[in-house]
Specification:
The structure is a single chain. Helix content is 71%, strand content 4%. A four-stranded mixed beta sheet has the order 1-2-4-3.
Length: 423
């Protein structure tokens, strides 16, 4: 393939992906607004019209911001690639390194290049994150984040990026350069080991940096949950309540960790809104994912896809047209540049697979719902979901096409109808 042909192919893929995302988000806005004035019949007795209108307006506001975010993100990717931005950053850092103690083209140069791209991407995304948190979330009554807490979170995230992210990048780049033609296999094994390790250390060491976790104090609820765990054959290291209300009014529950490090976490906002039997039903849904081994299945698919993509990157690194077609001189084609270009270009080509992954995720949600209905009362889970849809301002009327691409959970009406159907 010639560089010009690949440039045209990439530009077409990026443009079509952006257009598809914009069209889908505009469809979502129109659809929820068209159904704004009528609560769907299955929810008419539980969700008032004002709450339904709020959900429609909240969805539309998020979609409108999303359209701008998508356009800016695509422009940023094109500027780095076809616009020569990545080459310019590479050359600038090469000049800095040549004047210092490190030589250009070294491992340190590659880490600096990827770190610079990460910082640039963060700067581009920051205005959207701030508006999302202090604009949209605040306007609709969800944000409880203070500027001080936001800055504290940012400092902790920066610290973690430096302490974990930079050594991780260094290890990957070293393996790419030191392991010969089959470096992609070694990187994949390293990536897999790191992800398994993260399942162990996240609940105990990382998550507590951002939130306070206290043992569940409600003895009646604790007894109910422990009885459920016994029925489901699930063992954990404890039941914890997380102070999610410090940052948001949204509620949730999840289990995290791996092996002996598994723990069950309830948002304090969830416990405030649901009755004990509804909390039990929500947890039973989460345990349904464990029962059906959804996490392992997803990890297996992601691992297989990652192995294939790393092999593809290994092949592309030997093709001059890959670099030249994305705005980088082949003479600058080091491992860090190749990794950066691959990460920038890949989403433009994998977007058509989004509906398949979303569909698979929705199948898992139905399976988890069915499991919860076996272990608890289906009516309790249905009522809990209705409350969560209402309190989280989740739209009850998503556009079907948008939902098929982006929604990891089934539409509310279909999900609740299945739970309420006679068994």
């Amino acid at each position: 393939m010639s560089p010009q042909a690949f440039s045209s192919l990439f530009l077409a893929a990026a443009t079509l992906t952006l257009l598809a995302r914009l069209v889908l988000m505009m469809r979502q806005i129109r659809h929820v607004r068209a159904h704004r004035e009528a609560v769907p019949p299955p929810f008419a007795e539980s969700i008032g019209l004002e709450s339904h209108r709020k959900a429609a307006d909240y969805t539309a506001a998020r979609m409108q911001l999303g359209t701008i975010d998508a356009a800016v993100g695509t422009a940023y990717v094109l500027a780095l690639t076809l616009g020569g931005g990545l080459q310019a950053i590479h050359d600038l850092l090469a000049g800095i390194f040549a004047a210092g103690i490190f030589a250009a083209g070294t491992l340190a140069h590659g880490i600096a290049l990827l770190a610079a791209l990460g910082i640039a991407g963060w700067v581009i995304e920051l205005p959207f994150a701030l508006y999302r948190t202090f604009g949209i979330e605040k306007r609709f009554g969800f944000n409880r984040m203070t500027p001080g807490l936001y800055l504290a979170d940012l400092a902790r995230e920066t610290m973690l990026a430096a302490l974990i992210g930079l050594p991780l990048l260094a290890a990957v780049l070293w393996l790419m350069g030191a392991m010969g033609e089959r470096w992609w296999l070694w990187v994949w094994l390293f990536w897999l080991a790191f992800n398994l390790l993260a399942l162990f250390i996240w609940p105990t060491f990382i998550a507590p940096l951002f939130n306070k976790f206290t043992p569940l104090a409600d003895e009646a609820l604790k007894a109910r949950v422990e009885a459920l765990l016994t029925r489901c054959g699930f063992r954990s290291r404890g039941l914890f309540v997380m102070d999610g209300s410090r940052r948001s009014a949204h509620g949730n529950a999840y289990f995290t960790g791996f092996g002996a490090a598994k723990r069950i976490v309830f948002f304090d906002t969830l416990l405030e809104k649901l009755r004990p039997e509804e909390v039990e039903a929500v947890l039973a849904h989460e345990l349904g994912h464990f029962h059906h081994r959804h996490i392992w299945k997803r990890l297996a698919v992601i691992s297989a896809a990652s192995l294939g993509l790393l092999w593809l990157l290994g092949w592309l690194m030997g093709q001059a047209w890959f670099f030249a077609g994305l705005g980088v001189a082949p003479a600058s084609a080091g491992t860090a540049v190749a990794l950066a270009l691959f990460a920038l270009a890949l989403p433009c080509f994998t977007f058509p697979a989004a509906p398949l992954m979303s569909y698979w995720s929705r199948v898992h949600e139905f399976e988890a719902d069915a499991y919860a209905a076996q272990q608890t009362r289906a009516a309790d889970l249905a009522q809990a979901l209705v409350k969560l849809y209402r309190d989280n301002a989740s739209t009850l009327t998503p556009d079907p096409l948008y939902s098929s691409f982006f929604d990891s959970h089934p539409p509310a009406a279909l999900r609740v109808a299945r739970l309420r159907a006679p068994s």
